[in-house]
Design goal:
The complex is a heterodimer. Chain A is mainly alpha-helical. Chain A contains seven helices and four strands. Chain B is mostly beta strands. Classes of the chains: A mainly alpha, B mainly beta.
């Protein structure tokens, strides 16, 4: 899904001022006014930048940027195994997601594979999405757990605890071996069962319903 | 919600000259807007110096708000004084429908609203880790990644930059899920489609911020992150950022409400609500999407052909009749007004058709001008009801020629198990007794 939509041309358009923002609107309006009274002159042209805001330091960016990408960029040091993850899961996750990842009224099912890895969600309203049958990228698991879980104390797990619980979920979903070690090198190599099921949006308006 | 009469406050802007206007005492104010702790109705207390108003019979209980005294004759006694904040008439009690705790939602009471603007306190909510409470003095927006000048903006910085205002709708792409999965006759427009709201958003165009930071060649995506406990993240094509995206800090003329992203959120006109990241604190300019939870395991649309549509950003054309609708009831045959809302994330609503015969024939509804692009559009049609059972429905067409599909078309293309973007035609059954119920299709 690497975007072909946008391009160098658009980036150039921003710097050249060809965008549709308020500055362009203003310029158009001033041009359309024609001859002005003698005591009225156009407002000064805005500079390329107003110079508002301050530089973000590398450490500030690093402190906030916890994105983990499918290619593994952003994954930190640390590692975990399904066995270690079972303990983390039992202590931090099971109370909401259920001891077997079966879900509870307050949190969804997260463990389970479809028969023959069918992806019949569109046809079958009874199918329940899980990590094993729906999530296309293993890295999303790390990104999401580290950001958000446990829901009552997000950000409270160490990176190795996150690796461990991710390893546990991948193993319980039958995606990795129960003895695998998950870290910044191995996680991006884990291929998820639903990896190839996602397609770009082909809706584009017009008379054809898609 | 209502004023506390026990708390005395100097009204702002009160004239200091006592002769400037008749001055009501605090006691008078209490008498006129008598709010009781237990919610009991107080008797109307005559104001000092006035003759006693004739006693009228007590209004029927059903019409009596339980916390405010309604004078028997409002022309015979002055009303309450000015107040720091407006409140609704005690006879009007629209409310959202809060459900869920940490990850929750509430819906806009569409059937209690007219026109097109959603009052700020009735805008729908959808949170993934509760409502973030953010001190504006500590708010920061960081823009980094493929930029020349990674920059931190304070809220004051954002307010110094040229702002823009635009009236657009915001709709959760899960709007309509309940009516699709478990339709019931007694669903209101709020329960069916209440996760859409409309109003004037004010903020800084993302293009303005991009000038400040200098977007580098090769960039093609943005990744926006919220400052809530979900750190909710979405990837957005850079093209949208260069088109009409803004960092909004106000709605309907005042700062955003916390539940809607205070102090600032991303606003992407026409895109599904989840992408309009609330409490936005970080935008990374990149060349690939992050594949975050909310663009993979959620907010993707399974299709009948065994795939799932990803990055399905735009909200397609949709409409719903909000009156008559459950729970209202037609009192008698004769002329009635059919009225509702239509909208499209792809531009202006071009046309709304209304049927009163279950879709066999359609009539052109009148659209309230101005019809704004990507905004709720009010439609109406006068209909002479003959007192017989009927099925009414609306069908929107947008400026691209897109026509709101039928439920059958929707199920055929997307599948019975699909998710998100439930924009098919909805209808209402009018009973011969005047009752109105949601038209549940088989």
């Amino acid at each position: 899904m690497r975007a072909s939509v946008v391009s160098v041309a658009i980036a150039v358009a921003v710097t050249a001022g060809c965008d549709r923002g308020p500055l362009a609107d203003r310029a158009r309006r001033q041009q359309s006014l024609g001859n002005l009274p003698a005591d009225v002159r156009p407002a000064p042209e805005p500079p390329p930048q107003f110079g508002i805001g301050r530089v973000a330091s590398d450490s500030e960016v690093a402190a906030w940027d916890v994105d983990v990408s499918p290619d593994g960029v952003g994954l930190p040091q640390g590692s975990g195994t399904p066995g270690q993850g079972a303990a983390v899961y039992g202590a931090k996750c099971a109370s909401c997601h259920g001891a077997g990842g079966e879900g509870t009224p307050v949190a969804p099912k997260i463990i389970g594979r479809a028969v023959r890895d069918s992806f019949a969600f569109g046809r079958d309203p009874t199918m329940v999405k899980t990590v094993g049958n729906y999530w296309p990228y293993s890295t999303t698991l790390f990104d999401y757990v580290r950001r958000t879980m446990p829901i009552s104390a997000p950000g409270s797990l160490t990176n190795s605890e996150v690796y461990a619980v991710v390893a546990f979920l991948l193993a319980e979903n039958g995606i990795i071996d129960g003895t695998a070690v998950i870290d910044s090198l191995t996680l991006p190599m884990v291929r998820m069962p639903a990896r190839d099921r996602f397609v770009p949006d082909d809706r584009k308006g017009g008379p054809v319903f898609r | 919600m209502r004023e506390d009469p026990e708390r005395e406050q100097e009204p702002a802007g009160e004239p200091t000259d006592p002769a400037a206007k008749p001055r009501l005492t605090r006691r008078d104010a209490i008498a006129a807007v008598a709010v009781t702790a237990g919610g009991a109705v107080l008797a109307s207390v005559p104001l000092a110096g006035q003759s006693r108003a004739p006693q009228a019979p007590a209004p029927p209980p059903a019409a009596t708000p339980d916390s405010v005294t309604i004078p028997a004759d409002p022309t015979r006694a002055p009303g309450p004084p000015t107040s720091p904040l407006g409140v609704r008439s005690p006879f009007e009690t629209p409310a959202r429908t809060p459900i869920g705790a940490i990850s929750g939602a509430s819906m806009t009471p569409l059937h209690k609203l007219t026109g097109t603007v959603t009052p700020s306190d009735l805008v729908f909510e959808r949170h993934h880790a509760g409502v973030a409470i953010i001190d504006p003095a500590r708010y920061r927006l960081m823009i980094h990644g493929m930029v020349d000048r990674p920059t931190v903006f304070t809220l004051d910085d954002l307010r110094r930059l040229p702002n823009i205002s635009r009236t657009v709708f915001l709709e959760c792409s899960g709007n309509g899920r309940g009516a699709f999965r478990t339709p019931k006759r007694d669903m209101t427009p709020q329960q069916i489609d209440g996760m859409t709201s409309n109003g004037e958003w004010t903020g800084v165009a993302l293009t303005t911020l991009f000038r400040e930071v200098g977007v580098r060649r090769g960039a093609s995506w943005l990744r926006a992150e919220g400052g809530d406990a979900a750190r909710l993240s979405r990837s957005i094509p850079l093209a949208k950022g260069l088109d009409d995206a803004m960092i909004a800090y106000a709605f309907n003329g005042e700062p955003l409400r916390p539940a809607n992203g205070y102090p600032a959120r991303l606003m992407l006109p026409g895109y599904e609500g989840n992408t309009c990241v609330k409490w936005v604190r970080r935008i990374e300019v990149t060349d690939a999407p992050g594949m975050f939870r909310d663009e993979t395991s959620k907010y993707t649309d399974p299709l009948a052909n065994g795939t799932a549509r990803q990055f399905s950003f735009v909200m397609d054309a949709k409409s719903i009749i909000t009156e008559p609708a459950f729970p209202s009831r037609l009192s008698a045959p004769g002329w009635i007004q059919i009225s509702g809302l239509a909208w499209s994330g792809r531009g202006r609503v071009e046309r709304v058709d209304v049927t009163v015969d279950g879709g066999r024939s359609w009539m052109l509804a009148e659209l309230q001008e101005p019809v704004l692009p990507v905004a709720h559009t009010r439609f109406r049609l006068m209909w002479q009801w003959d007192g017989k059972a009927a099925t009414i429905a609306s069908r929107a067409t947008d400026e691209t020629g897109y026509v709101q599909p039928t439920l059958a078309e929707f199920r055929d293309k997307r599948g019975a198990g699909t998710d998100y973007h439930f924009n098919y035609v909805r209808g209402w059954l009018i009973g011969a007794d005047g009752t109105v119920s949601f038209a549940v299709e088989g």
